[in-house]
Amino acid sequence: MASFNYTGRTADGRKTSGVYEAINADIVANRLAERGIIPLQIELHKERESWRQQLHYVLGLEAVSDQELMMFARQMYTISRSGIPLVKALRGLAGTCKHQGLKRVLTDLVEQLESGSSLANALRHHPSVFDRMFVSMVDAGENAGQLEQTFKQIAGYIQQDIESRKRLSAALRYPMFVVGALVVAIAVVNIKVIPAFSDMYNKFGAELPWATRLLIGMSDFFVNYWPHMLAALVLTAVAVSRYIKTEAGQRYWGRWRLNLPLVGSLIKQGSMARYARGLSLMLRAGVPINQSLGLVAAALDNFYLSEQIHSIRRSVERGDGLLQAHGQVRVFPPLVLQMIGVGEESGRVEELLDEVAYFYESEVDYDLKRLGAKIEPIMIVVMAAFVMVLALGIFVPMWDLLEIQK
Asked: Which residues neighbour 310 within 8 Å (Cβ) at sequence distance 6 or greater?
């Protein structure tokens, strides 16, 4: 039950106020009328937030994660299946929710549903939490009377997306750690180690080999011009960041990511799986094909692919078939085109898109397991080259000096 602040007047005209617990504001008004109080204002009682909660809200730490959203979809599936009234169920979820950001959203959903809004319209008021794809599926599920199945499909889609990102992060964690350690080692060697040996070699006036001169030159440049290097790095990062935010930059970045060595194929396969899974999900929910294509394009995190899917949508709206529209953009592999063609002919597009998604998800899992084996030799060669140049540049002159002294 929720708490409501009320203000009213008694039968003798005195103004009174207080807090009343009830399911909704209408019940509060009826109870006040039974006590002879004319309600003037009834509003939901909001507890004062602590300074920590306010700080989290300002810093954006209360943003609803995909994990929270998946749990919400699963809970809504269970609730819808059990037959519990939606308003009552959402109020219960809001009362037990520990995530303050999601709790605010659920409380607002309850208020909007009590005012007569549909669930899809209520979700639409929170675009930072529920994207267009989520809202459109809920809308289609409400209209078709299959809300519980819709939430089940949404939960499965989000879970698959989370697991794919976790596997990719796990595969890239070791290479990123090695690269970071290598950068730190190079910085320490240039700042501390090489200058000390350079001073020693200058005192002896020995002729230095090319490797030593290279290391000393790099070290001098690093020590003397590190502020300029840092400024150039920051300016480059800012310029690239601003360029990527432009339409041309997003298009170039999206296309370039698909052609990256080692991970480009992974990104493309993951995008194909997400596209096929999302389109199948939308079509199963009863969303029209043109709207489904637009929503799936918005759900992808690659602007270049999104543009291609919007092109497919325009072709479909002109009357082209799915196979013809997909073949025109020259992005999708032959397997996808074949499965879409068979599905279009047999009327089983959703089923075959699920098969495409499952195939590419399996390919991503397999390639992720091999990614470490591909990167490790490259890391070993880079580390070996660094150690070899360092050893030749530092120790060879020392051996020459020892020979001279003998």
From this structure: 293, 294, 297
Percent composition of the chain: helix, strand, coil (DSSP 3-state, to 5): 75, 5, 15
pLDDT greater than 70 at residue 84: yes
Q: Report DSSP letters for 255-317, one per residue.
A: HHHHT-TTTHHHHHHHHHHHHHHHHHHHHHTT--HHHHHHHHHHHSS-HHHHHHHHHHHHHHH
Rounded Cα distance between 15 and 401, Å, is 99
| Residues contacting residue 328 through CB under 8 Å, at least 6 positions apart | 311, 312, 315, 320
pTM (two decimals): 0.67
Sign of CA dihedral 47, 52, 54, 56: negative
**Average confidence (pLDDT) over 326-336:** 84
- Taking the chain, what is the end-to-end CA distance rounded to the nearest angstrom? 93
The CA distance from 67 to 166, in Å, is: 12
Q: What is the pLDDT of residue 51?
A: 47
- Residue in this structure with the two tokens 């209408």, named with its chain if needed: 26
**Nearest-CA neighbor of 360 among 330, 343, 329, 339?**
339
Specify whether the CB–CB gap between 357 and 349 falls below 8 A. Answer: no
Nearest to 289, CA basis, from 335, 330, 320, 332: 320
The DSSP annotation for 347-398 comes to T-HHHHHHHHHHHHHHHHHHHHHHHHHHHHHHHHHHHHHHHHHHHHHHHHHH
